Amino acid sequence: MAHDTHASTDEPDHETPWDIDGFHEECGVFGAFGSNDASVLTALGLHALQHRGQEASGIVTFDGSAFHAHRALGHVGDNFGADSPQMKELRGHIAIGHNRYSTSGNVNPLMEIQPFSSELAFGGFALAHNGNLTNAGRLRSSLIETGSLFQSSSDTEVIVHLVARSHQEGVTDRLIDALKQIDGAYSLVCIADDMLIGVRDPHGVRPLILGQRDDTWLLASESCALDIVGATAVRELEPGEMMIITKDGVQSLKPFQQVSPRFCVFEYIYFSRPDSVVEGRGVYHARKSIGAELAKESHTEADLIIPVPDSGVPAALGYAEESGVPFDLGIIRNHYVGRTFIQPSQKNRTDSVKLKHNANPAAVAGKRIILVDDSIVRGTTSRKIVTMMRNAGATEVHMRIASPPTTHPCFYGVDTPSQEQLIAAQMSVDEIAKEIGADSLSFISVDGMYNAIAGIARDAEQPQFCDACFTGEYPIRLASGLSAKRVSHGSARK
Ligand code: AMP
Q1: C or N: which end of the chain has fewer Cβ atoms within 10 Å?
Q2: H or E stretch including 123?
Q3: What is the pTM of this model?
Q4: Which residue numbers in the chain have pLDDT < 50?
């Protein structure tokens, strides 16, 4: 990593290619302190978090005197097997790890893989980030203008440079100083000065949870990563909390100005694993109750409820329970195909949908069906699946979506395409129904979603979640270069 002097933050963001490519981010982070198996625990944690990023992973460890790192493209299991030579190299009692999405399009994809680690004035510093920074383009430009040498196209690297340039004394104060200059969403895990540090941004957009297994402390994006290592969930970090883990225990700091929490509602809809508990709520239960609410809002007569696997399954179960209509498996998913959504071109995406899902005529032939999926983004999946169901003999195909229409891109860490590619930003619900070939289409309402997830009414003045992808109300300042309309589908994700 490059590291240098001081950053000016006064200038408007420039419309650089980095700005355009840098804000479609998805990832998972994990950290372990106090075990000689820290790297093994981290590899297992990353394996449980694979759904948050499938393109590349990295682990960095610290053994008391030196840092060790391994980063690779591909799945965790392919690169961090228990007996692999690289795991033997990853010695130390502290480890952090990271899963990220696509590196395609970057000049040197390996340079994009986190955790980043560098030798700074105070010693070694390693960092992994889930989320997305909204003013990183401007900070990056001014850092470069004043001499910083960036090695990646990642917004996360800005944090490393700001820490390196900070005039504060200790590493904790340097990190606080750096983060105070940053806007956006971040859940971070860091190693510095024989400490494991976890931080959540002041709005708490992305999750981060503390766990414990005997004398080992763990930090993870989701509780499913604590379960896999047999750890107990201690508590989630609060929005704006910095947790410092040393051999003496855990210390909590609240160094940032307090703002209203805005946890990402899409974590419940799609992103988190259903067996995780995030922000104190089970994701599975949230999804089932969204399905039930959807049935209350927009049920129509049908013979079967068919989930679009896997993401539509809990909502479809909730829908079936509420409506009393039988649930059946009308679509079979091939699990050896990656997420269709992230394919670079529409042609690839369409082909992958075919590779991923197939109709099960034994269930749907001659039946009026209600298909339940978690979301419609471009409409690629729905279009294919509705046709598939008709070809398999379904007599009516109704589509029910367990989220409101996605009308705005996310700038805080979920991969969404530009607004021009969001079908719900371009068409009415009736037009989308026609476009995907469904007999009817309904999305859950925003109020219904709040009620189902949290049993609350949405506060219009101060919404309790970040729901910007459905409402366009962005809680964290966007840099002047960022607007829903200008965003194109990026290639750098983490
Ligand atoms: P689309 O085919 O473009 O309409 O995308 C909708 C499908 O992609 C749904 O089946 C979702 O489960 C899935 N999906 C929605 N959001 C995302 C995301 N951010 N990353 C990956 N997949 C997603």
Answers
A1: N
A2: strand 123-133
A3: 0.91
A4: 1-24, 103-105, 340-342, 344, 485-494
